[in-house]
Amino acid sequence: LSCVIPCESEINLRLYLHQIAAGSATNQVAIVASSQPAGFGTTAVNDWTVIDGPNPGTATIVARTKGMHVQADVGGPGWFNYFSMVFE
């Protein structure tokens, strides 16, 4: 089958990754600590929520991400993130 008209559509969304690094509702935890000054090599697992607005108190959860992030910059904050995102 082929389409008579273009079979593409574009959707633009503004979504917010809700990361909680500390406290009772934390959604990430370090599994490998680093002795390097900038934390180089620190590795953490995450189960972040993705929300549809900047205020977590009023926003709706639209997806979840599960994955890891690694402090990959010797000189300072520079995180490499990889995760899968599943929309609800």
From TrEMBL:
List GO terms (cellular component aspect): apoplast
- List where this protein forms a coiled coil: none
Where does the record place it?
Secreted, Extracellular space, Apoplast
User: Any keyword Methyltransferase?
Assistant: no
- Sorted UniProt keywords: Apoplast, Secreted
Assembly, per entry: Homodimer.
Q: Which family is it part of?
A: Belongs to the plant dirigent protein family.
Q: What does this protein do?
A: Dirigent proteins impart stereoselectivity on the phenoxy radical-coupling reaction, yielding optically active lignans from two molecules of coniferyl alcohol in the biosynthesis of lignans, flavonolignans, and alkaloids and thus plays a central role in plant secondary metabolism.
Q: What is this protein called?
A: Dirigent protein
